[in-house]
Amino acid sequence: MPIAPITGQLRKRFWVDVTCALGLGISSGYAYWYGVHLPALERQETFYVKLEQERAKAAQS
């Protein structure tokens, strides 16, 4: 008794895999950007603003 061929499963699985990969990739990118990158950038900018203010205050004295 032969096994019936499976047809169409590869195509369906391919689109599910592509959709999941894009969805997870985009959501991971947004999570990194807003959860890690922007807060680190804000801390860096705050540090440099504070440093510049201290330098300006020292130059006036």
Quick synopsis:
This is Cytochrome-c oxidase subunit VIIa. The chain has 61 residues and is mainly α.
Explain what the structure shows.
- This is Cytochrome-c oxidase subunit VIIa.
- It comes from Pluteus cervinus.
- The longest helix is centred in the middle third of the chain and has 52 residues, at 9-60.
- This protein has 61 residues and is an all-alpha fold.
- It is built from one helix and no strands.
- The chain has one helix spanning 9-60.
Using brief descriptors, characterize the structure shown.
1 helix, 0% strand, single chain, 61 residues, mainly alpha, Cytochrome-c oxidase subunit VIIa
Strand composition percent: under 5%
Secondary-structure-based class equals: mainly alpha
Largest sheet at a glance? none
Helical run tally = 1
What is the oligomer described by this structure? single chain
Mean pLDDT: 92
Helix content: over 70%
Q: Gyration radius, to the nearest Å?
A: 27 Å
Termini separation comes to 96 Å
H/E series, N to C? H
Shape: rod-shaped
Secondary structure: number of strands: 0
Uncertain ranges:
none
Organism: Pluteus cervinus
Protein name: Cytochrome-c oxidase subunit VIIa
